[in-house]
């Protein structure tokens, strides 16, 4: 019985050291190492919005904002269902 327990401990310890030798830093919590930290990792896409200011005669205080296709920031754009042109900006 002692030999069985010592053999199981040796196998368990060797499995733990083999798992610890995998390269990279685990981003998430414990468990399986599925993602490592490196400079070429996930980078989110830039998102663009069209901001159409309200006319002086409007009682609405905030500008109309809609999603837009990518383009030159600061360029002109249009929102569906809104009167006037807007300015293309990067979303925060």
UniProtKB/TrEMBL annotation:
Keywords: Signal. Residues 1-20 form the signal peptide. This is Secreted protein.
């Amino acid at each position: 019985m002692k030999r069985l327990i010592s053999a199981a401990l040796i196998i368990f310890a060797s499995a733990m050291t083999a798992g610890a030798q995998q390269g990279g830093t685990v981003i998430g919590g414990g468990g399986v190492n599925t993602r490592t930290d490196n400079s070429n990792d996930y980078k989110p896409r830039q998102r663009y919005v069209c901001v159409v200011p309200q006319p002086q005669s409007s009682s609405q205080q905030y500008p109309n904002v809609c999603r837009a296709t990518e383009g030159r920031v600061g360029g002109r754009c249009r929102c569906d269902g809104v009167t006037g042109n807007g300015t293309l900006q990067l979303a925060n």
